[in-house]
Amino acid sequence: MKIALVRPNYKSHIITPPLGLGYLSSYLKKSGTDTVIIDGLKESLKLNQMVGKILRLKPDAVAITCLTAFYREAVLLSKELKRNKITTIIGGPHPTFLPYQTLIDSQADYVVCGEGELSFLELVKRNFQNDNIQGVYSLKNLKDERQVIVKSPTAENLDEIPFPDWEQMNPSSYPRAPHGALIKGFPVGVIITSRGCPYECTFCASPQFFDRKIRFRTPENVVAEIEYLVKTFKVKEIHFEDDNFTLKRDNVEKICRLLIERKINVNWACPNGIRADEVNEEIIQLMKDSGCYYFAYGIESANPQILKNTKKRESIDAIERAIEIADKVGIACQGFFIFGLPGETTSTIEESINFAVRSKLSRAQFIILDVLPGSELWETLKGKFVPNWNKESYKEPEWIPDGMTGKQLLSAQSTAFRKFYLRPKIFLRLLKLVDHRQILYLIRRLKDYRLLKINL
Predict the structure, then answer these.
(1) What is the pLDDT of residues 19-55, one digit of tens each?
(2) Mean pLDDT across the chain, nearest whole number?
(3) Hey, which of 220, 350, 370, 403 has its CA 20 to 30 A from 384?
(4) 15 assigned to some structural domain
(5) Host domain of residue 288
(6) 12 and 80 share one domain
(7) What is the pLDDT of residue 94?
């Protein structure tokens, strides 16, 4: 049996290997199923090109990964595949939380809710005949959007899942468009050392997707993958994309010490963010000693009440101390800020911008709130806004806080980027990291955040 595993093309300035498809591919291969990964984002494939490429493969089924950011693209691809009578399955966070709507909109045969490895393999074994497989739904066993959804079973021992299918996601085949924009080394290998997060931030879908649980790979397993990437694909940099890389201090320390002991000479970073209250100078120094040069903190807002509203469970003082420690140790530190959270006003936005500018952050990212299916905000704001699946994720508002306008949020985002980056010290520091092969992607970022008015 041959399965095509597909990521649709969509507008994004971050183009990194799709780890979910990579894990699913290696897990299926381990059980004797042939797979082909088609990354429409990396290959810049238009819809007709994607469909043509899939049809030429003559797969037994096509599995499409789907985030809310590219739900529209996943739906359009699925409908085209169904017109060609191809068995189609959609998985990922978006269909996990809106399975009925996804089935209706996409005309797909099945959605897989939750982590896909175990349930999808079972679906393959049953030749895509769903006989009550946990976490797998079709319109035969899902009658409306009110039905209670049971997610797929999960692998409790993550070391038992093979490394992602790097042969089909060769890091050197990806463009210089990483998470975090600027890098020290290329190719970049993308890794997760855990799945899940025990926190309950209201804007995030991870708590519900993973039931506020977290599972870890062993440090030995993680470092073995890093060695494999370095030796086999000549990877020069590693990006840890965990929801919470530093949560288990012993694991972080062991990973760092193994990198040092085995003399694995590789730069590494945490562009997805770590919690500021889970690090101290000792662990940050060890991270640097083992090759870490950059990480991000999820700050979200500099206003204490907004942090309380979002159940962030961090104080501004703790965040500021953590930034200062990173600066002292010599690690470039980025701050993530979200504009448009409940309680947001023009004053609280100004508070966040001023905090970012006066802090010792090396980089900052200012995004506009996406109300994601699966997040607590999705439930509490239901009926107060109309989801817009066509909007650009994190760049266009859909729910507007009381007393604000969408125009104010858009203006605030552009203003924040200008105030932070158009300072000689910050601008020149980042300019030193710019590789000429990244220029086009950097210009796209500037255009996306309305800092440049040009057509590409």
Answers:
(1) 999 999 999 999 999 999 999 999 999 999 999 999 9
(2) 93
(3) 350
(4) yes
(5) 170-448
(6) yes
(7) 97
The predicted model gives 348-371 an average pLDDT of: 96
In the chain, the number of structural domains is 2
Whether 282 and 393 map to the same domain: the answer is yes
What CATH number corresponds to the domain at position 55?
3.40.50.280
Is residue 95 situated within a structural domain? yes
Structure tokens that stand for 224 in this block: 């073995």
Long-range contacts of 211-217 (CB under 8 A, 24+ apart): 211/151, 214/243, 214/244, 214/247, 215/154, 215/156, 215/158, 216/158, 216/248, 216/251, 217/158, 217/159, 217/193
Farthest-apart Cα atoms in the chain, separation: 63
